[in-house]
Amino acid sequence: MDDETRDESDVVFEVRDLEVTFGTDRGESKVVRNVDLDIRRNETLGIVGESGSGKSMLSSTLMNAVVEPGETSGEVTYYPPDDREPISVLDLSESELREFRWEEVSMVFQGAMSSFNPVKRVRGHFKETLEDHNRDVDAGMERARGILEDLYLDPERVLSSYPYELSGGMKQRALIALSLVLEPEVLVMDEPTAALDLLMQRSIISLLRDLKEAYDLTIIFITHDLPLLTKLADRLVVMYAFDVVEMGDTQDILYHAAHPYTRMLLQATPDLNVPVDEMRSVEGNKPDPVVRIPGCSYHPRCPMADESCKQEEPPMVERSPGHRTSCFYHDEVDEAMPLRSDGEGSR
């Protein structure tokens, strides 16, 4: 599938024909399949799908961080903001990757506690990162204090604390600050709010909006929680069965979703303003990564599927400018699977 053509200066990551494969006792398992995607500079891109849909693996390929025995094929090209040549990420050496992963692209993982050494003060994590990348420690620590303040934390209290002395929300914000201390261009966030309560999730989302503007960031936010992205993401990528099945501007996806799976995700979103009988679960089982069924990967769970869906794989097509989907019946989905009747309130 082809993403929309963009001016090269507007693209920070270009992904083409990307696949990730693992060999298993049961056979070859593809956990990312034939993905083409452009990520635009200074946007917030949300990648959403059920657990096991391939979204975290896709994000790992952007840093060439797929663990063995996984094998990555295709092209991942990073375009620096200056006059440097484009970087082929999958061709970087180990030493080049070490620099790339912190100085160009940084990642915030789910579960901040497991990202910190519990017997080292937070200050030590910042200093170690700066020293490992041959940065001026004094200048870097001053920057760290500024980032922590921007995250509404007391820098001295946080830096002098051990991780276990901080709340979950404080640890997560400290981890975000650590990921920004080397001034990366891109921040990849893999389920960063999953372990936090609802109020702290909303707080983190609000802070990320402010950080994006203050630090001129491109943010890639991976989550299974679609409502979490509605106030943050400029564009959404929806993954199912290790493929991208829909992509487009957030508002287009929310109000004019073209793929039945995306509509099922929206209908399954809890909402106190919606009658219970209008809410639907995403029925059926997640696909097996080893057994690739013929036709559309979603057809066993799709209420619109017919014989053609069971036999042929739908191509990625443009439904409207910038809004693409892989469904034979995207023009009929409004009638067959109408979104909730409450309109704007449901999302």
UniProtKB/TrEMBL annotation:
Residue ranges, annotated region (Disordered): 313-347
Alphabetically ordered keywords of this record: ATP-binding, Cell membrane, Membrane, Nucleotide-binding, Transport
UniProt subcellular location: Cell membrane
Keyword Cytoplasm: no
SUPFAM superfamilies: P-loop containing nucleoside triphosphate hydrolases
Molecular-function GO terms, alphabetical: ATP binding
Keyword Cytoplasm attributed: no
Sequence ranges assigned to domain ABC transporter in this UniProt record: 15-266
CDD domains: ABC_NikE_OppD_transporters
GO CC annotation terms, alphabetical: plasma membrane
Main location as per UniProt: membrane
Signal peptide per UniProt: none
InterPro entries: AAA+_ATPase, ABC_Ni/Peptide_Import, ABC_transporter-like_ATP-bd, ABC_transporter-like_CS, Oligopep_ABC_C, P-loop_NTPase
Mode of membrane association: Peripheral membrane protein
Listed Pfam families: ABC_tran, oligo_HPY
SMART domains: AAA
PROSITE patterns: ABC_TRANSPORTER_1, ABC_TRANSPORTER_2
Protein name: ABC transporter ATP-binding protein
